[in-house]
Amino acid sequence: MSKEPVVTVLMPVYNASGFVLEAVNSILTQSFTDFELLIIDDGSTDSSMAELAEITDSRVRLEKNEKNLGLIATLNRGLELARGEFVARMDADDLSLPTRLEKQVAFLRAHPEIGVCGTATETFGFGSPQINTYLQTHEQLTTLLVFNSCLSHPSIMFRKSITDLRYDADSKHAEDYELWTRLMTQTRFASLPEVLLKYRIHAAQVTSKQRDAVRDMATRVRRNVIARLDLSPTPEEMQLHNQLSNSETIRGKEAIVRLENWLMKLIAANNEKKLFDPIFFQTYLTKIWIDACANAGIGIKAQKMAWSSTLAQHADRSFMQRLKFVVKLLIRR
After folding, report:
1. Which of 25, 75, 188, 228 is most buried when burial is the number of CB atoms within 10 A of its CB?
2. What is the pTM for the complete model shown?
3. Torsion on CA atoms 277, 279, 280, 284, rounded to nearest 10
4. 177: closest CA among 210, 205, 153?
């Protein structure tokens, strides 16, 4: 290449034979063409390297780790080798839709304050396709970080100039979540509402043992986020918080009372620290509270608890919202 590319597409590869060439082709056929595709093989033991070696497109840079280093070390090596102004993540088993790079570059050019831009995604491969959309603004996305990661990692495009753009080696299985919690005060986030990446679901992804490791690491990251609000949750409070984060139903009146107290603590602490946008943070936690009451399985008592709480003082009390609440109540009784 005669000049530095605008975008480096960073694709780690480990034993992705059967998927990787399709993933590569989805990048090489992008409508935006000023990119390098930086592929780093992390010690594959299948035919991935042989398949990749046959690619002749000059935009492809093929690197190989001397030994298997793992995803985080491979990503950090890729960030060091990247030459583009922007770095787009890409997994070796996913597909980028043809206008992905074009639309993300255009968005980042038009919004210089944004440093991290994701997109909506669609699953494929195993099971029925599912479209995953994300909240769009920085204030909305960062609020989610008190519970979970807020963006689709394989869909991300970063500005290479972000100061702390490096994955934490101690955050395996939640490296993206941990990174967002650091970058949220250094730059601004956005997510495009259009599906621009297809996320492959297949049997070789995450085992049940790995799922436990993912949950354990996510708990550690969210505990660190909560600590930034100067809060030290009790074991019972952390259990409730993890239940919310893992989309688990909180059942029973006593648990709902404890949840009310915990959510009010979070709101009060954030009003003091202003780590998250106070207005959206309270709005989001209010929605969580209303939904939790409706799903608690405590009958009509839930209605009074939900709407009489201080948490609900700014809630949508329209007829339609109250009707939705009653419907959930009847389903969950």
Report:
1. 75
2. 0.91
3. 130
4. 153
